[in-house]
Amino acid sequence: MSTRELLAEPEQVRRALSPLRRRLLARLRTPASAAELAAELELPRQRIGYHLRLLEEAGLVELAEERQRRGFVERVLRATADAFLVDPAVLGGTEEQRAGDRHAAEHLLDVAAGAVRDVARMQAAAERAGRRLLTFTVETEVRFAAPGDVHPFTEALAGAIAEVVAEFDTPGGRPYRLLGAGHPAARQEDSDDRRQ
Q: Whole-prediction pTM value?
């Protein structure tokens, strides 16, 4: 099963972002020693060791095992997760911004950032407990004839959601947070431009 870890401290993010450290984190999904990594990457072992120490201090890699090698102990490390998510709060933003216009892109970004943070933390806790986090996603696309159609659509959708919520909401039940969001769909040429 794939594991993800939320990076919520600026120092963790800073230490993970250099190109070499990103390569090491990706490679250390499978445990390896500094000597093995140095040989694979064709870099001096001391340089690899330095970067591994920084990653270990930040809690991004951990000791998997120690092996006896020709009179010394070789440390074998592994990444603490298969993927790392950066908590959007590390990059700025305040709670006051969330109270903004629900049609503003900034509000959507703040709400989405909160969802990333909350789900990443709950998923990590569920994995530690050996459980699965039950979530659901509803995703679709709508084509509006005119930009002004967004507002009446939003009102109609909010009304429909309120009806369904009223039908299923149970006092004392397990609460779920439901997010409804819309944004322009990326055009194919936009995706092609980013790849080049």
A: 0.56
Query: What residue ranges do the domains of the chain occupy?
Result: 4-84, 87-195
- Report the CATH architecture of 4-84: Orthogonal Bundle (1.10)
Q: Rounded to an integer, what distance in angstroms lies between the CA atom of residue 169 and that of residue 172? A: 9
- Tell me the two tokens of residue 88: 């959007």
Query: For 36-95, what is each residue's pLDDT tens digit?
Result: 999 999 999 999 999 999 999 888 899 999 998 888 889 999 998 888 777 766 666 545
Instruction: Map tokens 């000791």 to a residue.
Output: 63
| DSSP string across 117-156 | HHHHHHHHHHHHTT--------------SSGGGHHHHHHH
